[in-house]
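help with this:

***
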Amino acid sequence: MSSLDGISVIFDLDGTLVDSEPNYYEAGRQTLAEYGVDDFTWTDHEGYVGISTQETVADWKRRYGLQAPVEELLAVKNRHYLDLARTSARAYPEMRKFVELLAGEGVPLAVASGSSPEAISAILARTGLDSLLPTVVSADEVARGKPAPDVFLEAARRLGADPADCVVLEDAAPGAAAAHAAGMRCIAIPYVAAQADAPEFATAQLLVRGGQSEFSARAAYAWLERSVRAG
C-alpha cells in the first residue's frame, strides 16, 4: 500500500514539466514576423504564459490588427512550435524525478495543458515521459482554457478521481487559478519569478517561490505525504 493512496496528480506541461517557453516565444516571434509584426519581445511573451495557444493567437489578432483568421494563425504557430519541440524539448530534471517517484508508487498521473494535442504528444515523446503520463488533456478538448477549471476537471474525470483528491502542479497564475476553481490542491512553481506575488499563487497550498531552481522532487513528495496524512 502506497503512502500516497487516494491522491491523483495532474501536471501542467509548459514551464512546469518541460522548459518549453523559449520555444513558444520563438514560435510566436516567427509567426508574427510572417504577418509583419517584427517587434514581439520576450517581455511581450511573458504576458501569455499560462494561457492557451488558441486564446493567445486570438489576442494577437486583436492586439496587432491581424487580418488572418484565428485558425490560420493557430496552425502557423503550431507548425513553428512543433518543428522546435521535436528537436529541443527538455524536461526539468527534478520534475522528471518527481514523475518517476509518483509513477513508481502507482499514483494516477495526468497532463493538462493549454497546448494543442499534437504539441503535447510531440513533447512527451521527445522527453520520454509519454510512457509515464498516458492520460493527457488539451485545452482544445474543453470549452474554456485556464484560468477556467475545465481542463483540470476533465483530467480528473479521465483518471476517475474526485477533484478534491487531486493535486495540480503549475507554473503560471492562470493555471493556479484554474486549480483553485476546480477545487484541487496546487503546488505552484512560478515560471516568471516576478509573478510569485500574484494573488492567484496565494491560493496554492505549496508555493515554491524560486521556481524550478528551488523545486525538489523529494521535498514535493514529502509534502504530498504530509497532505495525505492531514486528510
In short: The longest strand covers residues 109-113. The radius of gyration is 17 Å. Residues 78 and 119 are 7 Å apart (CA to CA).
